[in-house]
Amino acid sequence: MVNIVVLWGRVSRKPEERILPSGDRLAVLDLTVPGEGGPDRPARSASVPLAWFDAPAWALELGAGAELVVAGQVRRRFFRGGAGLQSRTEVLVDAAAPARRPARVAEILRRAARRVDAASGQLEARGVT
Questions:
Q1: pLDDT tens-place string over residues 16-63
Q2: Domains in the chain: ranges and CATH
Q3: Which residues 6+ apart lie within 8 Å of 112 measured at CB?
Q4: What is the per-residue DSSP string for 30-61?
Q5: Is 80 exceeded by the pLDDT of residue 128?
Q6: Which residue, among 49, 61, 66, 53, has the nearest Cα to 15 in the 3D structure?
Q7: Pick the residue with more confidence: 121 or 20?
Q8: β-strand pairing of 16-19 with 84-98
Q9: Given 1, 11, 18, 26, which residue has the most CB atoms within 10 angstroms?
Q10: Is 54 left (phi over 0), alpha (psi -120 to 50) or beta?
Q11: CB atoms inside a 10 Å sphere around CB 53
């Protein structure tokens, strides 16, 4: 099984750093990614919440509008809020780079492609094509 997400978009608000009760550092930010339209439907952008444990300092300095490439995993977490049990679906960042860093972006994309290829091989071994 595989859970891989690759996003290329623009930061829609300045990242915030949170210190969790465990002491872990978590950066939270939103990435707006363009949607693809078609002959019968307009393109619609999507805002994707990101969670990034131990994000590097440069990530916290990103401003709204910065172009970012992210590889990670989709996760849904549950928590108690004022209205009872709530959930949030977000992308847990494994690696990211500003789009202006083409060598780093290429490495992130190569790693993600290797993971997809490995998953594809597992499907082929099960006879799924």
A1: 999 999 999 999 999 999 988 788 888 889 999 999 999 999 999 999
A2: 5-125 (2.40.50.140)
A3: 4, 6, 71
A4: EEEEPPP-BTTB----EEEEEEEET--HHHHT
A5: no
A6: 61
A7: 20
A8: unpaired
A9: 11
A10: left
A11: 12
